[in-house]
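tool_call: predict_structure(chain=1)
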Amino acid sequence: MQKNISTILKSVSKPARYTGGEFGQIIKDKEKIKTRIAFCFPDTYEIGMSNLGMKILYGALNELDYVWCERCFAPWPDMEEKMRKNGIGLFTLESKDEIKDFDIMAISMQYELCYTTAINMIDLSGLNVWASERDESDPIILGGGPCAYNAEPVAEFFDIFSIGEGEEALVELAELYTKMKQDGTYTKSAFLREASHLEGFYVPSLYDVEYNEDGTISKFEPKYDDVPKKVVKRIVNDLNTSYFPLKPVMPYIETVHDRIMLETFRGCIRGCRFCQAGMVYRPVREKSAEVLNAQAQAIYKNTGYNEISLTSLSISDYSCLHEATDLLLDWTDKKKINLSLPSLRADSFTRELMRKISGVRSSGLTFAPEAGTQRLRDAINKNLYEKDLLNAVHLAFEGGKSQVKLYFMNGLPTETYEDIEGISTLASLVVDEYYKTEGRPRRPVSVTVSVSCFVPKPHTPFQWEGQDSLESLRDKQIFLAEKITDHKIRYNWHEAKVSRLEAVFSKGNRRLSKAIYEAQRRGMRFDAWDEYFSYENWLDVFDSVGIDMDFYATRKMGYDEILPWDVIDIGVSKSFLISENKKAYESVTTPNCKEKCSGCGANKLGKELTWCPHRK
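tool_result:
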């Protein structure tokens, strides 16, 4: 254990972020451990401890008796300053040992604006941030999370990436590492070569990348015949039998999601053309209502939480929803446990669902029409109609709700100012529906319109699109603000400059690594936090390293162009994505997966896919 940690905790904010010792943490005998893994989350304790994926992987790895997986979160700047001043390296919460002494440093990257923080964690560990300059004595640095689906902007910093779902894949990687260490065949290069043969692992150093004069990629190929040309993502086939944490670590301080989080299913049937999650998490796999209920009871017994949240990309698409909620409500009502159903779709919101969530403390509900007109909703394949939204809010108002939040995007491909004005019109119709509803609450209605900026994402039908210019995004935000005149409608919008940086990283290649390194070197981190994000500083960074942000953010890419993320196979074919992109410009929709299979290709992954036994 490092010295001086306890002394500096007295002088930093929220010292419980760094103490460990929580109920449920896993402590093992180091003398019996063969492989040590530091699971690092490049954001604060409160954010990381709310991440269900981290809880799953932490528990799954610790199921191996010869592996000890410990947690580590990015220190807040006041703590980092004290650590650097006192020569304290980045450490884990369980043992307080320095990361540099571990075998594997695993970093989960959930969003692009965590890149500088992730690289800073490597640096704070006393390790060289460049993978090519680390030696045999250094830990293997493993990346994962949604950003790994285009790992190229940070590929130069990592040894290997886990692509897809990790609870089985990371166990296999740990087994391989331990075996090679034990039988004496381990060298870093030999391990990485062997790891590339495991399904779902991408080793950037084993691929050659060359560029054309215009900056596009001319070649992206493996260096050796035994290295796969495409890295196929890993999926867990059976969620009923796969690992799920029933004894989660109980944080000492309030976290973002301070409740039981039950994962109902993975994947999405909808196919919205802007949505990366809806593509990369295919195919749909569900848990049975009985397994879900048993897990909820076990976690409640071990934690005492008074709220349960059913998580998924779209909870109302869970085919066992009514069976599951009946089973849960049978005992949660008696124990006064709140049941939360986030991510509801307006077109599948029913009176029965309204009745079941009537106990939710919030007086409001959230729906995501995404676009203001039917033409644009068809272009993005939302498959949602005005009547669906008005029917949903009518049921909500009838059930005693008076607050509704509506999520939209601006800057979507094919968007016009008529579509932007449609957001205001739709919000006004929701207000009118409130006053048409008999039995509504007596309090005034409140409709919040929240508008984010479209960011083109890899592995989606819109991956080839360019983002609107900053000026265009700002003009659209101002235009909508002028159209919303009803004081019952509150308008929030996302900062376009943040979305611009997200777009650069989202569509980026390996050349961006020098910008990320330079930003980290200048002390930039926590870019997802308003108080630390500086667009002007980023402009200066990109200018200093000779990178044109517009080349990545606003440039429309060709169908035949080699994309930085083409090395990753998510199961969905490029021909399907191209077809969906073309249909967007004709405002032609594609039915959801339960209505008709459109041949995206994702069903080639896995074996017999698991569905709820009650699914009709």
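agent: The two ends are 56 Å apart (CA to CA). Proceeding to next step.
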